[in-house]
Design brief:
The chain is of the alpha+beta class. It folds into two domains: 3-36 and 190-422, Creatinase/methionine aminopeptidase superfamily (Creatine Amidinohydrolase), CATH 3.90.230; 49-187, Creatinase/prolidase N-terminal domain (Creatine Amidinohydrolase, Chain A, domain 1, 3-Layer(aba) Sandwich), CATH 3.40.350. The protein contains 13 helices and 19 strands. The strands form six sheets. It has a six-stranded mixed beta sheet, with helices on both faces. Strands 7, 8, 9 and 10 form a four-stranded antiparallel beta sheet that branches. The chain has a three-stranded antiparallel beta sheet with strand order 13-16-17. β3, α6 (113-119) and β4 (125-129) form a beta-alpha-beta unit. α10 (192-215) crosses α11 and α12 packs antiparallel against α13. The longest helix has 24 residues, at 192-215. The chain is elongated and about 70 Å long. It comes from Alteromonas pelagimontana.
């Protein structure tokens, strides 16, 4: 379960309270301001079937390089990435097979076939199974018809055990291996089109922050502000909207708490929000102070701003991703935080990969040796958390270009001007 799903369904940050909110009760001011927001996604286009075919060709080349006969994927981002199929996982198997040579194949329950075909963008070979049948026999048939009866069969790391075990039981002459060299070898490096979609998603989230910041009022609950942010992103054209809103002492919990908090004079308001445009994600965090900020709040905010800049400057082409995290922790340690993950300080990694999923490889985390390369996209979010007091997190995503790191959104310049701005896209 990723951060977005966890936040959406756990109730942390009061994400699921259904009581009438202050934002709903206020006399029209927020709703009239929200109505001024309009969809800004009209210039974007979804990933085409041609692009998916090119991805499959790239995957097949990587399979040849690694001696992999075929890749098996379950529903999720990778299946969507290659085939366009947008489905979910259940006890009934739906799977995509990418052979080293030839056309992809799909196995799905008989009664689900029409629905699965609605989003299938590439390939015509869809094989169905009835409720009393073994779906792995159908998968075996797809492989056999492509001349695959032995060799390495690759599974993505998220494939469930019953799928791996069931398929391997009918393919005794094959060996299972990781599909990461193939799936990550494709998905980790974003195309110009993918970057454009992510740029637009970040634009939506940033504009929504600007709107919400102007609407903050004393007495608002976390749910009030969360609702404002959700409605704003939706009005601007965002989909798969998610958000975390934390006030006061609760802001020291990076991913939330069940504590109920309201805005008061001097409140820290920490928000971590995002959306998707044609399946590609944004992820931006902002920290505000309602009213007059204390000297300590100002100091910590500036320290986090500096930490974020250190991460950006360290993220050079060829640099091991873990070195970015190390550089930030070294700076924080000099300020007396930590050491390492200890609090007060930075209790989580400096950043994570992002694309179709909010959290992807590779990460800005200690020990990560993968070198930064063009096309990689990552969050930059080195917060500082002080238990019992407050936390500060500033998060903007970056993408690696031919000349180094670039911002999707530029960080805010000060606590008095805490939004930031959209950076031009360099592709």
């Amino acid at each position: 379960m990723n951060k977005r799903t966890f936040i959406k369904f756990s109730g942390l940050g009061l994400a699921t309270i259904a009581l009438p909110s202050m934002a709903q009760r206020k006399a029209g001011s927020t709703s009239s301001a929200g109505s001024q927001l309009t969809d800004i996604t009209g210039s974007t286009t979804p990933i085409s079937a041609t692009e998916r075919q090119q991805r499959i060709k790239r995957a097949q080349q990587l399979m040849r390089n690694h001696g992999i006969a075929a890749v098996v994927l379950e529903p999720g981002a990778a299946m969507d990435y290659f085939s366009g199929i947008q489905w979910w996982r259940s006890e009934r198997l739906t799977a995509l097979v990418i052979p080293q040579e030839g056309e992809v194949g799909v196995v799905t329950p008989f009664f689900e076939e029409p629905s699965v075909r609605e989003t299938l963008a590439v390939g015509r070979d869809v094989r169905v199974w009835q409720e009393h049948e073994n779906p792995f026999v159908q998968l075996k048939g797809i492989l056999k018809d492509r001349g695959i009866t032995k060799g390495k069969l690759a599974f993505e790391s998220t494939v469930r055990y019953f799928v791996l075990n069931g398929l391997m039981s009918v393919l005794p002459d094959m060996q299972h291996v990781s599909a990461d060299p193939v799936t990550l070898g494709c998905r980790m490096f974003k195309s110009a089109h993918e970057l454009q979609l992510m740029h637009k998603a970040n634009e939506i989230t940033l504009k929504a922050y600007e709107h919400v910041y102007s609407q903050l009022q004393e007495g608002m609950s976390q749910q009030d502000v969360k609702l404002l942010m959700s409605n704003a992103q939706q009005a601007l054209g965002g989909h798969d909207i998610w958000g975390l809103t934390l006030f006061n002492e609760a802001s020291a919990y990076p991913h939330g708490t069940k504590q109920q908090q309201n805005i008061r004079e001097g409140s820290v308001v920490l928000m971590d929000c995002g959306c998707a445009v044609h399946g590609y994600q944004s992820d931006i965090s902002r920290t505000f102070v309602f009213g007059e900020a204390s000297k300590k709040q100002k100091m910590v905010w500036e320290q986090v701003k500096k930490g974020q800049q250190i991460a950006f400057e360290t993220a050079q082409l060829g640099t091991a991703a873990g070195k970015v995290d190390d550089a930030v922790r070294s700076y924080y340690a000099k300020l007396g935080y930590g050491p390492e993950y200890s609090l007060p300080g930075l209790s989580h990694r400096t950043g994570h990969g992002i694309g179709m999923e909010g959290h992807e490889s590779v990460n800005f985390v200690h020990g990560e040796t993968t070198p930064l390369q063009p096309g990689m996209c990552l969050s930059n979010e080195p917060g500082i958390y002080i238990p019992g007091e407050f936390g500060v997190r500033l998060e903007d995503c970056i993408y690696m270009g031919e000349n180094g790191a670039n911002w999707f959104t530029e960080p805010p310049v000060s606590l008095e001007n805490p939004i930031g701005k959209l950076a031009p896209l360099s592709v």
